[in-house]
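Practice set, problem 2.
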Amino acid sequence: MPELVVTALLAPSRLTLKLLRAFMWSLVFSAALVAAAVYGCIALTHVMCRPRRGFCGRPRHNPPVCLSDPTLGEHCFLILRSSGLRLHYVSAGRGKGPLMLFLHGFPENWFSWRYQLQEFQSRFHVVAVDLRGYGSSDAPKDVDCYTMDLLMADIQDVILGLGYSKCILVAHDWGALLAWNFSIYYPSLVERMVVVSAPPMSVYQDYSLHHIGQFFRSNYMFLFQLPWLPEKLLSMSDFQILKTTLTHRKRGIPQLTPSELEAFLYDFSQPGGLTGPLNYYRNIFRTFGQAIQSAEVVTLPGKIQGAWIQSLVRKLDPS
């Protein structure tokens, strides 16, 4: 069939897709403006309640002592083969068993896995990374540097760069979204997987389309689509919105000490420390509408509380 005829036949479909995409982005940015107004009021309220903190986050010049706790492991860096970026990770138990790789979420870092690093280092080589854009890892400024394909390539480079052919992948929140996709596209590199508090992206999207309330609960995702403003709002009143998120009685981290809270805030308080993590969200609608896919990897869903640690030990190491 002549190319001109094919182009003419496809033209209506291409136009329809462009119109649907334009309509979707108009809805996204409309929701982003509404979310910005809401979070702007919240941030201003924090400033008025704590005027001494001012409108900016206080820069932390020295990391808290808990970040250098030697019982958690050794701090190392790995140059990623695919991108050339330098990734920071904490490692313990090398030579004591298979690789157990931990991927954190937002607003967190490798320190989220401090208890797991201590618990499993006697029988696994445990590695908790700072994902690209976080902590001491390299943080490209361009939003296009945080696509799902590039982030999955980072995980592949970590596993192979550490000298392994597969791993036990343990992930939470954004790390879990990466882990789900990674187990689908790189199943040979994942022996088993433990996912905490996050469904596959396709399942989340399908659920959100059928339960409009989920969009309201995820309103921060719309805010994060905007440039520079989310960074400003999150840092106001010395990062009070992040503090509230991390210490929330129901949705935060249980029994978080002031020093541990500073372990998370330290990296975000550095110049540009919030931009990399927020760029993950700025890519999230680029894959909206993807088909639901199944993972072939043995997977254990879980929650980080109570007996979850011991349950995980038994399931991963029945002996």
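Problem 2, part (b): a different protein.
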Amino acid sequence: MADSGEEHFVTPVIEDHQTTCWGCGLRLLLPTYAPVFKCGWCGAITNQNVNKPETKCLRWRRLRDRCFVCTLFMFMLFVICGGVWAVYPVVFSVSYTCGVLHSILTMTLAATTISTFSLAAFQCAGTPPIILWGSYPVVGKGGLENYTFCHYCSKPKSPRAHHCRSCGTCILDMDHHCPFIGNCVGAANHRHFIAFLFSAVVSTIYVSVMSAYAGLHIWPPLKYRSPGHLNGFSSGLALRALKEVVLALLSSAVQLSARGLVLVYLFVSSVSVQIGLSVLLWQQLCYIYEGKTYLSHLSSRGSDPVEEKDCQNIFRFFGWPYSILRYLPSERNSRKRHKK
């Protein structure tokens, strides 16, 4: 009975605790069942609880992105062609020099916006580098440090990469997936995306200014009622004056021609798009200043920031040479300089 009791406490190694590293192929013996573990040789991280989700919606996502791209491209063409048609006679009626200058600016902004949009939309967002994996002789010590296995692509995924379910591939330094360009924003096209936002903001500002300028020239004269009843001071004086202006604008808007209606639409749409793109551009520049992407910002919430906020991050992002960066002030140097 005593021998049987002692044998009862013998715990053999369970076979389920032996697993194989996907990175180097070495068999690992874990003390307990660990769903997530890191290989001590190659540094690869294995997650045994990850289940490959279904990818049935991939085709519909791509169709959605193509619809967004076509809609945005048609909108840009309408703004360019409609703006030229509506503003052209008004500007040339002022002076020939103003008309030529307006034509040059319009062609420059249109070409810049369409070219940067095409580069951001149709260029690969960033393919992770190809790395050897799978067997011990091939993978060296720390060769796959902090790499994980992408169950979508069935290949290693670096810590800087993220799998996009809409594109169906891993993207290096992925910021986000933008349906309006039908592409991810990553390491290869992030600069083009920022250039497109900047060009689009400048273009919408110019469209709103020129449409307002042309609209004032062709707008029918406003017809107010006799202002005699507005004499004196009362609590509702400002409200009644505003009501008179609105009624005069509505009554004159009925007499607008097709050119005037196009100008009104261009002004409203350009101001709306300008506000949205300005907010997006400012958000992107803030992330670049912090040395982050949108996804890394989401993953670092609630943790201590490791990246340094520095103006050099912006210049380094746009590819400025080191000879210029060394003369720029950095937050680290300023802290050391003022520290006593």
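Answer key, part (b): Confidence is low (pLDDT under 50) at residues 1-14, 332-340. The longest strand covers residues 161-164.
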